Amino acid sequence: MSLLSCSELKVDIGAKPILASVSLSIAPGQVTAIVGPNGAGKSTLLSCLAGLRAPTSGQAQLGGVSLAGMKPRDRARRLAFLPQTPEIAWSVECRTLVELGRTPFIGARGQAEEDQAAVDRAMAAANVMAFEHRIVDTLSGGERARVLIARALAGEPEWLLADEPLTGLDPAHQIDAAALFRRLADRGVGVVVTLHDLSMALRMSDRIIVLAEGGVLADEPPASALTPEILRRAYGVEATLTQGPGGPLIDVIRRA
Amino acid sequence: MKPVSRPLLYAGLVLLLLILSGISLIAGKVWVPFSVWTQPELDPRWAIVFELRLPRTLLGIAVGAALGLSGAVLQGYTRNPLADPGVLGVSSMAALGAVLTLYYGVTAVAPWALPVAAISGALIGVGILMLLSGSASSLVTFILAGAILNILSSAGVSLALSLAPNPWAVNEIVDWLMGSLADRSFEELKMAVPFIAVGCALLLTTGGALDALTLGEIGARSLGVSMSRTRWTLALGVGLAAGASVAVTGVIGFVGLVTPHLLRPLVGARPGALLVPSILGGAVIVLAGDIIVRMTPAAGEVKLGVAMAALGAPFFLVLLLRLRRKIA
User: Fold this and answer.
1) Is the CB of B263 inside 8 Å of chain A's CB atoms?
2) B310 pLDDT more than 90
3) Is residue B113 part of a domain?
4) Does A80 contact B222 at a Cβ distance shorter than 8 Å?
5) What are the tens digits of pLDDT across the range A97-112?
6) How far apart are CA B18 and CA B319, in angstroms?
7) pLDDT digits (tens, 9 = 90+) for B252-263
8) Contacts of A86 in chain B (CB under 8 A)
9) Which of A22, A78, B120, B328 has the lowest CB atom count within 10 Å?
10) CATH number of the domain bearing residue B12
11) What is A4-255's CATH number?
């Protein structure tokens, strides 16, 4: 299986440096969480890894091939991206929205039988079959988030990159989404998510990358990534790591 | 409302178009009954049908198709149901191009100069829109850019009018600006249709990209859609189709605005699914409008462009109010 990687990735927005020389290599079949304070460059890094933002210097690669040099359609077949604030411009049916995930596969003849089968599988996986024919405007925020996850899965990608996929979900749906990401990773899909909820990051991921001030502060398995020392340096807070009944918990005590 | 099945919708629209085309050939100040059709060589009214009404009808279909499709594509691209070649200033830029050729009297020597100038105007207009939306693609910028184009072109037209060399030129410009299908010949048809056909063909290729744009620009790009290709295909397509339409009929507004909107409840909101129905729907609306203006009991004929604007403005207002309620 191919690796998703970047080497000496540097991104400036205007004169402001967002990422300064980030090098990473991410393996498929895992859930990788990118965390860090606001403005650390999480979303920028994710969109570079998705091939949707050209870095100022350095490059992102999929299986050793530069994403920038790849045909957009070929890239889109292998790699799905869920933006942080997804826009849904028209009042379409949920199924129509999920079908958009098949865009990179559709030829001049439109949706084929296998496209419809893939849409069915994606909707079943994200548990949204029940509102297949509902108009997206009538869904709750959580339902809509699940439909958008189904849209990303419809292309049956090797990689799923999701920017803050748990934001706006209630605890039950957060658990569902985390379980879905886990199932995908078990099937060999590379899942990369940015997260704000650090306890959730500890519980759902195999690897945590901590970004701070444009660089990688830590890149470790969950058990060793979010130590009090790293949390102090990344977020400027005093925090302890405790073991709760449901898994590890991060308790933020005060500003450092 | 539940979307109607596609074959049924197409059949309905085609049938409506055929009926209206039939009426368009016989209706007007002089009614031409079907009996004329059986012995065309004996009846002088046949000339009315063949030389006046046939080109007028065909031109109505072509222009309606071009405007309806341009509107559907622009709405899909901007993700805004208020977009249309008229609202976004593309038509008025085409008009400015055409007016300049009328002003300089070029059309008398070179009749092809008018469509070329109108298409150039439309291409410049839509090019400016695309450049603006490329750097900052917010819808507000887009609509404001359209407003600027409208202001710019109407200033240009006013200047041409105030500096016009003789009253005859003023008359010609004003008459042309109002938008009409009256007294058009096969010449105009031959001039416009090739450009309209190429423009429409280009626009029809954008369906998949417009669908993907439902998820916004980032969403569409993540699905492998090339935004720059979409943008330039669309600019060229709208420039050719809308520009060539304005070149032969003047500005007929609101067709592009109204057509997709009327079809959306029947087809569903997916932008790509609206394209072909908007071709048929635009043709139906322009033909219907033209038949109505022909039949108005006035000394002169009400200009189609004027009638469309009178019907379109309240429609625009209702849309705006509904959109505001949705946003609020």
Assistant:
1) no
2) no
3) yes
4) yes
5) 999 999 999 876 677 8
6) 30
7) 988 999 999 999
8) 215-216, 219
9) B328
10) 1.10.3470.10
11) 3.40.50.300
